Amino acid sequence: MSVFRVFLGSVVLAAISCTPAAAAEALPFPLFDTQVHFYSNDFSKFPLHAEHAYMGQAKMVERATDHPVTAERVFESWRTDGVGAGVGIQYGAAYESDNRYLLSVAAQSGHRITPVIILNVDDPSSPELLRKLVAQDGVVGFRKLGKKAKDGSYPWLASAGMLDLWKAADALRAVVELMPYPRSPDPVFLNQVAQLADQFPHSKVVLDHFSWPNPDGAPEYGLTAPYRALAQHKNIYFKFTTENFERAHGDMSLIGGFVKHAVDIFGADHVMWGSDRGNTMMPYAKMVSDAVEATALLSARDRRQVLSDTGKKVFSIAPGK
After folding, report:
1. Helix H or strand E encompassing 85
2. Residue 21: which pLDDT band, with cuts at 50, 70 and 90?
3. DSSP reduced 3-state for 211
4. Three-state secondary structure call for residue 7
5. Which residue segments constitute the domains of the chain, with CATH numbers given?
6. Alpha-carbon distance 235 to 200, whole Å?
7. % residues pLDDT > 70 (the chain)
8. Deepest in the core among 97, 129, 145, 165, taking most CB within 10 A?
9. At 27, which helix (H) or strand (E)?
């Protein structure tokens, strides 16, 4: 990186980090948030299914009761913080695979919220349900979380039911969004994903939270050889969120370097931002401000792709496909 670019980046960082509102207003385009988790406190109409929530059932109930993430609240934040639209990611901690609330929010959003659902991979009717929801409800894909097995592999990635869903997503050119546990970088997971991306080349594979790279500094910024190898798989995309920022303890110079390095490796057309609202409990204005600041070292064109255009393109299904 040249001295001039470092100086310029420092100037831009200083210019946009004064207030969250100023960060949003500094950009000539609205942001597209690829990760919002919606949940309601209307438990009679939309009961929680939080028995297996990672933070505990009581905590999930408390969140939904006191801080529901509704379309009204999100739209107000978007209006004040410079976000135009985004993706609703079904929140398994709240509803598991009961997608009714997310679909109701998306249906009433005027196409501002694009839904990504969770499906029961053991239900043989799930592929057909995916096709139906894509055709009728604007769904653009599904999300799957899973744990590492004792032998170090991730068998859920290619279970019989999951392969059927991969096939359906491939035919639809839909999103398959993946998040492994534990939350740590794992070459085994990345290699399995690469093989499946090749097997289903028309699916759009999105690695949630960038698949947890360690927030190391230069020169790799945690993007070690197993990550870099994914650059050759053009249907694999990378989403960074506030979770990644928190793993870097809010060190914005480190985060900015990470985002710039990621774009250099994968291209701005394969990197996107998501707030993780509803899961990460932080003021939304701060999330937006951090996203803007994190992209300060990018060119104007790359910044627009990362904060808006890439997400819009990936989380869509072209007519007739």
Report:
1. strand 83-89
2. low
3. helix
4. helix
5. 32-314 (3.20.20.140)
6. 9
7. 91
8. 165
9. none
